[in-house]
Amino acid sequence: MTDAQDDALLELLGLDAYHRYIERLADYIILHGDIQNHYATILRWYKEDTEI
User: Fold this and answer.
1) How far apart are CA 11 and CA 28, in angstroms?
2) Scanning 22, 35, 40, 50, which has its CA 20 to 30 A from the CA of 11?
3) For the whole model, what pTM was predicted?
4) Residue 29 is part of which domain span?
5) pLDDT block averages, 10 residues each, the chain of length 52
6) For the chain, what is the domain count?
7) pLDDT for the residue numbered 52
């Protein structure tokens, strides 16, 4: 992730949620291997989690 992407996620999610998604990403990588785009994955998870 670039610094700009990291900053954008922090602004969008807030500190607590940001840390939760980073931990979720780390757990996912441990179980499934690395993914191509960390930023896009976290954004997708966030959108899925906040859909009504």
Assistant:
1) 23
2) 35
3) 0.89
4) 3-50
5) 96 97 97 95 96 76
6) 1
7) 65
